[in-house]
Amino acid sequence: MDITIHASFLPHDDPDASLAFYRDTLGFEVRNDVGYEGMRWITVGPSGQPGTSIVLYPPAADPGVTEDERRTITEMMAKGTYASLVLATHDLDGTFERVQAGSAEVVQEPAEQPYGVRDCAVRDPAGNLLRIQQLS
After folding, report:
1. Coiled-coil segments, which residues (predicted)?
2. pLDDT digits (tens, 9 = 90+) for 38-47
3. Which of 38, 40, 51, 129 pairs as cysteine with 84 (C-beta 3.0–4.6 A)?
């Protein structure tokens, strides 16, 4: 079977702040930026990996989500417990310095983890948890 990860979705509550973080702080390419009825979907991805994208989306756009569920999603986003993503880099310390200098909330500085990786953790402007691992 030939299957790849094409896109992952992360919610945002401020499209401009999310765009600045993923584009300017992480250096991702902007692949699409679509507005509809006052909402924006922004597709970004690492340069050199055109087949892998992150879609930053407004969680309120799903018509199947109730008002109570929207409130819960908003509360979970504010606490940073709604969505997460693991990224990887060959230069964890340099990447951490760049992210720390940007708009990310630092959750954990680079450290050796008991599960065998060296990584750090930050939150993007929407509260999504991003773990960044050191590649060998």
Report:
1. none
2. 889 999 999 9
3. 129
